[in-house]
Amino acid sequence: MALLERLQRRATDVGLLPWLVQLLPRLALLSGLVGLAWLALWLPLEGNYRHTYISENALMPSQAYSYFRETEWNLLRGFRTQIKQLVNETSSSRNEIVGSWLEEIGVKTAIHTDSDNGDTLYGVLHAPRGDGTEAMVLAAPWHNGDGDFNLGGTALATALTRYFSRWPLWSKNIIVVFSEDPKASLRSWCNAYHSSLDLTGGSIESAVVLDYPGANDFFKYVEIYYAGLNGELPNLDLVNVAVHVTEHEGMPVSINGNPESEIGDSDFYAKMRKMLLGVQKMALSGVQTCYGNEAFSGYRIQSLVVKARGTGGPFDITTFGRIPEAMFRSVNNLLEKFHQSFFFYLLLAPRYFVSIASYLPAAGAFSVSFILAGLDNYLNSAKGLSSTSNSSYYSVVTILAFVVSLLAAFTLSQVFLQWTKPLVLVTISLLVSSVPLLPIKSKFTTVYAYRFKSIAFMYLSVVLTSLLVVNFALAFGIGLLAFPMILIKNTNSLKLRFKNSLMLMATNPFVCTCIFANVFEARLQGLVVIERLISAWTQLGCWSWFVICIGWLPVWLMVVFSSIPSADERRSVQSANAKKLQ
Amino acid sequence: MRTSFVFSWALLVAQTYANVTSIDEELIIPNETDTAGTVFETCPIVTTSSETDSTSESLEAGSLFNDTTELDGAVNEEGEGDRVVLFENVEPIKYPFQEKLTLKPLPRNFMAASFQFQMSSNNLTVGEAESDFDAYRHYTVFPKALSPILEYTQTRQLHIRFTHGRWDAESWGQLPHRGSKSGGNGVELWAVIEASNKNEAFDNWISLANSLSGLFCSSINFIDIEKTTYPVLSFQPAKKESMPIFNSSNHLFLIRAALANEPICTENLTPFLKLLPTRGRAGISSLLDGHKVFDSNWHSLSIDVETRCEGIHCKYYMEEYIEMVFNVPSSLARADKPIPKPLQEDALMCDESKPHDSYECFPLPQRKETKFELSKLFGKKIIGSSLISEYPSKVCAVVSDAWNVLISVGDVFYSTDDNCFTVKDKELHDLHFESENTADIAEPDKAPIFVSRSLTGYGQDSGGLRVVFRNPGNETVTAVYFESLPWYMRLYLSSLKLESEVGLEIEDVIKSTFYLPAIDRERPTHLEFSLSIPANTSLALSYQFDKALLKYAEYPPDANHGFEIESAVVTVIEPTQYEMRTSTLLLSLSTPDFSMPYNVIILTSTIMGLAFGTLYNLMVKRLVTIEEADKKSSSRRGLKSRLLSFFSRIKRNGGKVDVEKKQQ
């Protein structure tokens, strides 16, 4: 204790505290920059990431020879030709015909009817060796995320089911699912499986979604998508198995839709780009194009999408079929649940990763930055208080104001959930952002302006910290995009007010998200992202909309309040000038 | 020839029977050790080939297998009369043992094989225990291993089930023997135990479970108080009133437990074969090979022992059934090629009506015609009959007219009208099956009810159970639903809900409920519903539960894939007697990170250390103001200044010395 005491006294002697208090705004800024640099610059450096490895020994990927080849290709083509004739059929007749094929193979089938999202055909191949309590899912949506007919994928799923039925070694049931699309329809099936379906095959351990649009026999490379909803990721072991199996068959792997030209790159910038792309995909999961793995989130199902890209490459469709075959063989070996390896990770390349302890400080830094900004504002507000005024009165009013803005934000989130008008929302946001420019004077004093910002930043910091572990990418994204808010100053000068207004526009949750989506995600142009945020909640159960509305919007509202020039601003400036003159 | 034989046979029966008072007196019982060896070596052939017809007929008439489901009575009634030595010292001694193999093709090229063995013990003396020094006991065909266990645990009825796989009731119809001979996935054990009170019964039960555990190489010893239930409506013995109580002050207790998803494998089959007098080396049991039995889609090994008394003479009657379902084409294919590699191109069966060439092929449905031998399915032939038995081994095929079934003895083929064959002598027997249309089979009995159960819900702290009942028939089904759930599933019966498309209420379906709530670590939830399910309806019962947190040491030592929940049992009372199990379930409980306790210990220790340090300082140190402290610290010199002054003193001293020297 004596050491602490001495240090504290030394600090007081030197006058460290006032110095630090003065430095607070700059420290907050620095902390945010450190957070960004940590993720983007520090982590891709050699020595900060690790090579992936199979943690669970039982998986043994590619240890068994894959037999999905030779005449299985003939059968696959046979199924594909027949499915090709079903492209223009109604979904119910399509499901009926394919269902009859599955029944012939010896699979129990049923159709999950959902009038809103489309019917889903599924079949359970009961494992001859298993106890029937666990299952692996092979999903092939009729249409893939891009809206193309998943001809190769569905034909593969049928042919693979037939092929699997001949093997006696399965210890887990195999469930094959043909949903209308990989998003709402598959999610609806997954929800029904865990609540109301009569034909079930036990708890689902893993799910592989096959995406092979078109009738082409050959393709160029394989894409793997793994980012689940609400920051959920499949166990790294499953991703590793998929990557291992694919590369074992000689196919190049791209993660998160990294373009083909960058697959082979492994320098610092390539790693950085791939990792940032992964963070972006995680943050926008459910909002961006869904390929199917999102549908299984939340039920402790490890899921990923394997997608064939390109036509006329060196690899044929049975090679692609050997990926799910080998993956199923691996998962089949598991005696336990997926529990080893990592559930929180970022991939810098198919075979490089950083685990949670390494990347968490990046988002943590933003939390710290907001705490510091909040503290700075609180201390500033204390300066404006005369010794006679009652501090707790100010606090109560501040809290009340905050509650009001929280309620307003919540109401807004509910209203736009029902009444999806992104243009209205963005327009309102822009109008509100220009409030500092209006020639009005706030009745609140500067003290309130500081207090408002203080509570807002503290709240945002709490939100980000609690989101940190659950959904790192979203926490990091919000932290980064809302960061400029701490630069907004209480001022009376028109130039600064104009700057404030711009800053507010840039940090408005909706405007900012739209800008971000337009810049970084080619498929989310215009104001689509707002609609997608809402549909992600209604169809998939993705929280992002509420995190943005309840976590970010009230903070922004408070900052808007505080940036209205207050009536006493001029007075205080005048008095300051008067003091100077004296 | 035939009439004269029958006549002389009847005469001899009459003569000898007149003299017989007790079988034990009459039979010359060879030494236990001798019999084991003599099965193959010394038992002479009973029938000669000229007598084939007459013997098979008389066996037919006197067979214990008149009705597969009503076997038990037969042994009792006819056993005494027929167990007679025809020619003393010439004919071999025959024992109350019989066996039968039934083969029944099922839809979609499946085939059910049912091995049935029955035996009974010699007379027991009531009130005399195995351990009594003057006890006199013979074991003939009844397994010696079992009898002492039954005696010292005072077990009057014993039922063991080892079942694995999924019985596809929708396609295969009723379970064999109306479901009375198969359990849920894993091991199931229930017994009627005589005891003066429940505690004694439970003690006996535990020692029974532990003994059987060793006998059957299975983890039956994991049955404990947490898993044991005392069924009220289900599992009731069929002939309750005739159950003997050896001591009239005692009561009978029906106790049951199940181990869900206990793996069943060869080491469990071997003890089953060891219990047979033929030891799997003769008769139909010679077909039983672990590789083939456990390669089946569904298999069930069961043992039922009952005590039956007539006056003071009591006997154990034992039925041992080993049943399985094969997929015939894949079993045959595996016999040829163990790995199901892709077929050769010319072996592909393509649908001619769809595009097909050397690149493309839409597969045809499975072939309708079939031809195979039993030896191909089981990997070996039947090695003769069980010659120590009163009755020769029988093999029956339950097929429709579309099938042709032959038995081959050596090179000669035989057929019969009813497709039942008698296995004789020590010859190798094989069965040949041939059919033009495998879909044309003896119509399986429709299952009166379909029940499926699944876990519902989201997350680690709570969940739900959903049981779907479907009555496909035109009659209302009355049934009992039995469920025993582990205590860590905290059931809320108040959340019981009924989903039904026709608007049924809970009161319409559940007629009565027996509910014994769980006690942590002491008792499972015991739930029995009397149900009445209207004709042609489907309904779902669902209820919610909370998942309890286990104690640190209660988690399995290794990472596990979840906690097994045993299957629910549905006993249909009307319109037919039928019993079935749902599939087992896998419950995942939240599992803590087991490094957490150490983190907690480290954190608490640190905090306690800090608190202690502060408190200790406050108690032993003097409180001074900062000014005082500053004064004091400025008066107290630091190490640096002390060193400096020390050196300067030395320097000064050195200087002084020099000065002094100079002065000198």
UniProtKB/TrEMBL annotation, chain A:
Q: Which UniProt keywords apply?
A: Membrane, Transmembrane, Transmembrane helix
List GO BP terms, alphabetically: attachment of GPI anchor to protein
Membrane-spanning residues where? 23-45, 352-373, 393-416, 423-440, 460-488, 500-520, 540-561
Write down any Gene Ontology CC term: GPI-anchor transamidase complex
Pfam families on file:
Gaa1 (PF04114)
Q: Keyword Ribonucleoprotein, does the record have it?
A: no
List the protein's name. LANO_0C06348g1_1
Q: What organism is the protein native to?
A: Lachancea nothofagi CBS 11611
Automatic annotation (TrEMBL), chain B:
GO BP terms, alphabetized: attachment of GPI anchor to protein
For this record, an example GO cellular component is: GPI-anchor transamidase complex
For whether the record's keyword set contains Signal, the answer is yes
Q: Keywords in alphabetical order, please.
A: Membrane, Signal, Transmembrane, Transmembrane helix
Does the keyword Signal belong to this entry? yes
**Residues passing through the membrane, by range:** 596-618
Origin superkingdom: Eukaryota
Q: Which residues form the signal peptide?
A: 1-18
Pfam family name, one: Gpi16
Q: What is this protein called?
A: LANO_0C08438g1_1
Q: Which organism is it from?
A: Lachancea nothofagi CBS 11611
